[in-house]
């Protein structure tokens, strides 16, 4: 068993899209045959233990406009934008009335700019040379109450920014915290839903957002898996070993950028502003919406492949002041929309092991 619903990176969408086995199942039953509820439904994909994913976008345009005097604008192309993520989930506690999963992850996003960014534009020079990274640990807790009601909670801590080595990391600079809590109802093995709150960076800045979970299987082929507003996905079960998905996701990222050369805050006359410290650190807020098609296929009894393609709309890639206390926007950037593709391999519990335990995928 891995984590419990759909992330990533953190956030509504950052709850990893990995599930406990669909209820009712034998090991979720006490001697008196009491069944405990959970958010999964029959027809969902298999649980994920270890995930390796690579995503790539082709060449697209970028335009950055300075929001303060003394900083230049930028317009050019990005030749490469790629993401590599490695995630692992370990069941720390697995009982009918309490399930706990610990997750560890590492993600890296890389850029290559076609233009003067590496020499003339400080923000993009840092990003191209060092990349954007996130190293995270999280704990997911599922607390079934009875055969209908359940609680789900997740807490996550991560180090997120352009650091290159452990010597650059400090808790105050790079540390990020997020959390989710959902209360839900299991109406049948085919229908589970819940409501809750998420505290994190799904839409770029740290905020509290509402969440509505809706998992439903309509028949042996069709279903829907949603954590609105961050993700809505339709599911089509081609066979026991092949699943097709279609829908959208909203992904948010928040990085700390350490500038090599400080940026002086100047007034309209070109003179430094006395009560503003020079900019040495920027907070980068990235938000994107992806419209996607995804195909998951069993390769071996314990190994699955996920192939995904779609269109990415970038809502924001903005830099904010971290040196002063006002969190003023310094650079407003927009990426052009772009197609993307990704390939993923993930390890699942072997089919024979699940069959012996009385679990149906």
Automatic annotation (TrEMBL):
InterPro entries: DUF6268. It comes from the Bacteria. Residues 140-259 form the DUF6268 domain. This is DUF6268 domain-containing protein. It comes from Hymenobacter jeongseonensis. The lineage of its organism: Bacteria, Pseudomonadati, Bacteroidota, Cytophagia, Cytophagales.
